[in-house]
Amino acid sequence: MPKINAIDLKPGNVLEHQNKLWLVLRRELVQPGKGGAFAQLEIRDLKSGNKATERFRTQEAVERVRLDEKEMQFLYMEDDNATFMDNDTFEQLQVPRDLIGDPADFLQDGMVCKVMTYEGTPLSVEMPPSVTMRLVEADPVVRGQTASSSYKPGRLENGRRVLVPPHIEAGTRIVVSTADGSYIERAKD
Q1: Which residue among 18, 61, 79, 149 is buried most deeply as judged by most CB within 10 Å?
Q2: What confidence tens digit (pLDDT) does each residue in 13-32 have?
Q3: H helices of the chain, where?
Q4: Is residue 106 helix, strand or coil?
Q5: Which domain holds residue 163?
Q6: Does 89 share its domain with 116?
Q7: Any idea what the CATH number is for the domain that residue 99 is in?
């Protein structure tokens, strides 16, 4: 693995520290009145998700890790594992559902996602920012409710609850954010 100076680390870099892989979230260069300058890093353990703050001298060498990022196609979900396929080599990769988190509810057959791996072990899955789904259930509009004042509850075809504007009826296809499951707009058919 290449060694780089701590001062050259940027948010998004991955480093090996204390036999763990850490994602750099934030870097701040600190120059105290007395003593040498140092880089203070806010980092997150890629396996457990725990955050930490570490200090490195600016010229201290750290192990920077190169991750493999590949676009892979989602095939199916089985026993809390999502199976993705590399479109170039047709190799399949199992990713635990808890690694994807709540956005896993929005995985659809054939969806292309970016999968980050280190030595063949999946570390994260980046999904498309939005997905189109059918609203299967929507509460009736409350009389006197204006369109701009509030949203009404509904249920998507995957079972997730969503708040939609009063004019959206059951059976309508809508665009939903994969990050938080919120309504974006009515789908253009």
Answers
A1: 61
A2: 888 888 888 888 888 888 88
A3: 97-100
A4: helix
A5: 130-186
A6: yes
A7: 2.40.50.140
